[in-house]
Amino acid sequence: MVDRTRNAFDRLIVDPDKLQHREKLSAVSQLVAQLLEGHPDMRTCQWLGRKLQDWMIRGGKIEQHLGLAPPPGSHATVRNIANRRRRDDALMRFANTVGNDRVARLVLRGEIECPPQAAEALLALRNFGRVPTSHDAISRARRASRTS
Q: What is the pLDDT of residues 77-93, one digit of tens each?
């Protein structure tokens, strides 16, 4: 599927207000990473500047001003999505450290011993609480990392 919201350099070409909730969360998350790296997308920066200015003038919850509050009944909060992304990153690091997804699943299920070189990655992953052990969990984490 063609992404009509970004150019070939993965920069937004539409106003973030026109994005769906998850797309907007992804755009803000990407902007944070870009700010930390020192090369932010100016369109998203300008949008964020306008929203922050509006929030400073009007007050209220920042999530409402940014349009990041989850839809009613949804658990897709900024915090939950960020935690899931960090857990997915830890899951992929663990799978890469042990060598492949199949070995990672076997270790996570307790069917084989964790290789010594992956002990630290396993501990980091277990710090997130319940660790997904299905093939789909690791595949989903890999897909999510390619789209965010």
A: 778 878 888 898 899 99
Q: Where are the domains of the chain?
A: 1-74, 78-147
Count other C-beta atoms under 10 Å from residue 51's C-beta: 19
Determine what percent of the chain falls in helix, strand and coil, rounding each to the nearest 5: 65, 0, 35
* Number of Cβ atoms within 10 Å of the Cβ of 75: 8
Query: CA 9 to CA 11: how far, in whole Å?
Result: 6
Q: How far apart are CA 134 and CA 32, in angstroms?
A: 30
Query: What was the pLDDT predicted at 3?
Result: 67
Q: How far apart are CA 120 and CA 99, in angstroms?
A: 15
pLDDT of residue 115: 94
Predicted structure pTM score: 0.61
CA angle 20-25-27, nearest 5°?
Answer: 90
